Amino acid sequence: MEEAAQAPDKVEAFDLDQEPDFSGVIDRRSPSLEKDAKTYHVKILLTETDDIILYEAASHTVAKDSDEAPLVEQQNIYYDTKKKNRRTAMAAAEAQTPEMLLKSRAVNTERIRKQEVASFVSNYDMYDTYNDLERHTKEIDLAEAASKIEITTYSREGMENIIDMLNKSENFHLSSMILQRLLAGNVYREKQKRFRNMYMPDPLDKNAKYLYRLETLWTYKSLETTGKAVASASWCPANGDIVAIAYGIYGFTNFDLRSKGYVCVWSIKNPVNPERQYHFSVPVTSVAFSKKTPQLLAIGLYDGSVQIWDIMDNSKVPVGVSERKSSPGFEPIWDIGWIESDDDLDQILTASQDGTIMKYTLNIGHYLIGFTQLKLDRVECETEGIQVEKKQDSMEADRHPQALSLTIHPVRKDIYFIGTDEGCVHRCSVNYSYQHCGVTRMHSGGVFSIEYSPWSPKIFLTCGGDWCIRIWIEDIKEPIITLSSGFGPIQTAHWSPVNSTIIVSVTQDSVQLWDLKKRMQKPASYTTFGDAALTIAKFTNCGRSLLVGDSDGRAYICALEDMPFPPHFQYDELKKALYRSLICKPALLKLVRRCGYLGY
Q1: pTM, rounded to two decimals
Q2: Who contacts 214 (Cβ-Cβ below 8 Å, separation ≥6)?
Q3: Where is pLDDT greater, at 179 or 329?
Q4: Do the beta carbons of residue 275 and residue 252 sit within 8 Å?
Q5: CA-to-CA distance for 1 and 39, rounded, in angstroms?
Q6: Which helix (DSSP H) or strand (DSSP E) does residue 594 occupy?
């Protein structure tokens, strides 16, 4: 057993050249020989061998601060100058380098001589000095900041002030306006092309989606109008690139904000600065361009006065101003409109807060000729239209309702409509003074907007403070469709000039786009703009862009993207949408069909 446990000192290896002898090998598969088998233990020792170098790239550089560096530099210089041939020789020389202009630090200056001199100054001289200093010191408000700086300017007697001379030069203002347009074109060129409808949607696009999206192109804002609410806006009928925006008040404001008003005439060629700006001592409440004379702009003010300006005239003098003798009203003018007549007279109608409808005629003189067209009275009896529960014990402090909106009939130019704060719409005529032709109750709150459809002179919409938009047909005293988007008054609503079934409405929070052909329970899209309350919305003349104003003085120019393609027969689509909404109202549908074809 001891011999079997011990391992042999040496292990014989087989010779590969000789045939091995397996006679002494034990077959382990035989169970009878398994006991005679010996167990052998083999020890294997692993040791580290020397490194085998496969590839070596020796460095031919030395450190700059080593002892060998000077010797290596001398060898390199000797090699570059002596050992190389002419083709590879190198030399340090300048080639195609600009001439360097050097300036010495030393500057010869004359020595400053100081001398103490006594001077006598009287009290009169001191008074004149401080008075002159106070007269030439001005405070300037820094842009986008609440701080102010003081600047003192002096001018010698007999010399003309350059700043005043430039401000009085019309050529300078014209040149600066053209220069600003060129600079603005570098930034807003692509967006201006979109406003001009140079990028039209492809009607054959298979991936077209109807998202009813508003994309903001730019924002009209200026430092002077910051904090002033956008009260009204009017696009020029002859040039769709020009818009007049009135800046006044919205809601309750303090006295300081009611002491100023502005009207800015903006152009898409210069979205940064207005090209005309008119200042007023009171807020501006309404503006309107004349269709017959497009350069004339009528402006209604918070104190009840009216002015007409010519935007082509840069003299800063209005064409006509109302006077207190013919227009004694002092309440704000909430809406204004031009009367289109066959004669050459330019006439306007105004609706004021005290219920007075005034007619003004532009005369040759400086003052407008004012005439009281109508004085509205509150409706005390039962009227046609919707049924509104009226409290029996309610007492109105004012016997005259507020005239909030004014609209002239699209076909019969002598007929106009007045929306009041009691929810009634008065039908009036320019030919009949001091009386109205009829009254209809269309809302339970104030009527803020009345507008006829561009595709039918018998279909119109109204919106008001009862959170509703109602669509009406003339001679039918019941609304065809009632649209409601939530809990908030509808500031304004307009028909789309491009698509007969699309309506835009504005609340304080968002802008809603309605599609009567798609659905009537809720809008097709909502769009919000910042934290400020929204005040107005206005379609452009082409109808593919929208102006949205807020209470902070910003006017957003938005492009209508991902909109449905306009139908070929606009009126037929509108009629189908209205008939489809009347399926659940058979009595009203029968009345509509009895009145005849929806339209002319």
Answers
A1: 0.72
A2: 511, 513, 525, 527, 546, 548, 558, 559, 560, 561
A3: 179
A4: no
A5: 11
A6: helix 586-595
